[in-house]
Design a protein that fits this description.
Layout (H helix, E strand, L loop, with lengths): L16 E6 L13 E6 L18 H10 L14 E6 L10 H14 L5 E4 L16 H12 L3 E4 L26 E7 L3 E7 L5 H14 L5 H9 L4 E3 L6 E3 L3 H8 L4 H4 L5
Helix pairs in contact: 1-4, 2-3, 4-6, 5-6
C-alpha cells in the first residue's frame, strides 16, 4: 500500500482528521489516547451510550480504526499515528446496520459538525447486493457523499466479501470497484485495550485507502479530492481477479504522491523510484 514510507516525509496525520463510520471504537485504548476528538451514534436501538457516544461493542470498528490511526503503543502502528479521529457508531453489536438513512444521517452529521474532515471511511456490512452503479440505488446517499467531497474529504467504502463476481456493496469484484488494497492478514487494535490478529477482508483494505487519501492531502494540501482519488487509481500495478477476469489498480500511495508533488530524496532514496 505504500503509506508507511510517507511518515519519513512527515505525512503522519498531524493536523488532519478522519471520520470512521463503523461499530464504534474502544475509547480507552492507549493507541488512540488524546486523539478521539468527537463521538456520535446513529444506530436505532443500539446506542448503549446514547447519541453522543461511540463505544465499540463488536470490535470491528476498533480493528479498522487501529489500521488507520493506531499510534503503536500496544498494537502495531497504524498508517497515520497522529491523525485526529471522529468515531461514529452506525453498526450494532452484530456488525450490521439497519438502513441507509442512518448512514446518510451520520455522513451529514460529520459534514455539518466537522467540516474540516479530510477523509471518511465506511467499512460497513450488509447482505444486499447491487449489480449497478450505487449512485442509481440511493440518490440521497450519493448526495451525502458528494457533499463531503465538496468540502475536501475523500470517502472510502469497503466493497464487501460476499464473493459475487458481478455485484457491488458486498462485492470486491464488481465493475464499479475503484481500487484494490491490502486487506489480509493484519494485526490491529482490539477492544479491551488489546490486539486483534489474523484480520482479513475488504473492511481492512478500505481504511488503507482513507489513510492514503489523508497522507496525500497532508503532503499536497492544494490538491483536490478528484486529484487525490485519480492519483490512487492511476497505480502502476494492476491486480487481475481470477474469477471475473477483471483487473483493478492496486493502491500505491508513494506513487500517488509522486503524481501530485516532487518527492524529496530522503523519502524515495534516490528521487527516481
Amino acid at each position: 500500500n505504500g503509506v508507511t514510507p510517507l511518515l519519513s516525509g512527515g505525512a503522519d496525520g498531524s493536523g488532519m482528521k478522519v471520520a470512521v463510520l463503523d461499530s464504534g471504537i474502544d475509547t480507552d485504548h492507549p493507541d488512540f489516547a488524546g486523539r478521539i476528538v468527537a463521538q456520535a451514534c446513529f444506530c436505532s436501538g443500539c446506542c448503549p451510550g446514547g447519541s453522543n457516544a461511540a463505544e465499540d461493542n463488536n470490535g470491528h470498528g476498533t480493528w479498522v480504526s487501529g489500521i488507520l490511526a493506531g499510534n503503536g503503543d500496544v498494537a502495531p502502528r497504524g498508517a497515520l499515528p497522529a491523525v485526529q479521529i471522529v468515531a461514529v457508531k452506525v453498526l450494532d453489536a452484530n456488525q450490521s446496520f439497519q438502513n441507509l438513512s442512518s448512514i446518510i444521517s451520520a455522513l451529514d452529521w460529520v459534514r455539518v459538525n466537522h467540516p474540516d474532515v479530510d477523509a471518511v471511511n465506511m467499512s460497513l456490512g450488509t447482505a444486499q447486493l447491487f449489480s449497478g452503479v450505487c449512485d442509481s440505488n440511493s440518490g440521497s446517499l450519493t448526495t451525502a457523499i458528494n457533499n463531503l467531497r465538496n468540502i475536501g474529504a475523500v470517502v472510502s467504502a469497503s466493497s464487501g466479501n460476499q464473493r459475487s463476481s458481478s455485484s457491488m456493496a458486498t462485492a470486491m469484484r464488481s465493475t464499479t470497484t475503484d481500487l484494490y488494497a491490502a486487506g489480509a492478514y493484519l494485526t490491529s487494535t482490539a477492544m479491551g485495550g488489546g490486539i486483534g490478529t489474523n484480520l482479513h477482508g475488504t473492511s481492512f483494505a478500505s481504511p488503507m485507502v482513507a489513510a492514503c487519501a489523508i497522507a496525500l492531502k497532508q503532503a499536497a494540501p492544494n490538491s483536490t479530492v478528484a486529484e487525490r482519488e485519480n492519483a490512487m487509481r492511476n497505480a502502476p500495478t494492476q491486480v487481475t481477479d481470477t474469477v471475473s477476469g477483471r483487473s483493478y489498480p492496486f493502491l500505491d500511495c508513494m506513487n500517488a504522491l509522486s503524481q501530485l508533488v516532487a518527492i524529496p530524496d530522503p523519502v524515495f532514496g534516490n528521487g527516481f523510484e
